[in-house]
Amino acid sequence: MGFFDSPSELRRFLSERGLALKKRFGQNFLIDPNVRRRILAELDLHPGERVWEIGPGLGAMTESILHSLVQLRCFEIDHGFVRVLQERYGGREGFSIVPGDAVKTWKAFRSEMPEKIFGNLPYASGATLIGDFLEHRFLPGKWVFMVQKEVGRRMDAPPGSSAYSSFSVLCQTFTRIQILFDVPPEAFYPRPRVVSTLLRMVAREEPLPVENGKLFVGVLKAAFAQRRKTLQNTLGPFLDSLHLDAGEVFDRAGIDPARRGETLSSEEFLRITTAIQQLQE
What we know:
The chain is α/β, with parallel strands linked by helices. The chain has two domains: about 5-205, Rossmann fold, CATH 3.40.50.150; about 215-280, Orthogonal Bundle (Helicase, Ruva Protein, domain 3). It has helices at about 5-15, 35-45, 60-65, 80-90, 100-105, 125-135, 150-155, 165-175, 215-225, 230-240, 245-255, 265-280, and strands at about 30, 50-55, 70-75, 95-100, 115-120, 140-150, 175-185, 190, 195-205. The strands form two sheets. A seven-stranded mixed sheet has the order 4-3-2-5-6-9-7. Strand 5 (about 115-120), helix 6 and strand 6 form a beta-alpha-beta unit. It is elongated and about 65 Å long. The chain starts with 6 loop residues before the first helix and ends with a helix.
């Protein structure tokens, strides 16, 4: 059994280094080597590719990734873990690490678009990070993420389902999502209280034409702010704030204002956004 596969060895190492798991960071080490191998196979890495790893922890995946001779940039929030990673891999060609919360640090490197991005995302902030990437149209070719099962189902939910949300629309507008497999709590140390899901996101070769991303996100958030209300009641005040006539917007978009936001597809939300832009010109 390897170091990364043994809870007792991990506990011993953390104790010797004076490190402690921080609940606020949602730290759960992936100790199942079979799951790690499946993630590596899914990434399908090639020498020279630019790859980002979010939340490497102590480097269970990092070691294997570097064997693929990629250019690896890691984002790690725990400064104790950053020191360990620097000691282990700081001298390896192609390795770099960014300390701090990835939600706050990634934009400094947005001009260096990776081909692939992956990570075992914290349950509390995983959706926030993915949403931030999408809202800024940061679209690596392939994303492989471990997320809470409920988050994965929201991302892939169809219109009209209870899990469908503004986050679903945002994910489906810019990427194609495939749920790969569920991962049980016993694959981690410490064991989380929920089931995890590994999913793949591939940037759309021809993304839906969002000209004004900020406006599009504003439309989504307004439409889903009160799920049980109609578009007339949810988007109406939003359109008033833009000094637009709601009826004219819905007519131009060809959308019935008596519908609820949870029934609209990505394309229909884009039609509303386009109608707003046209009327603002």
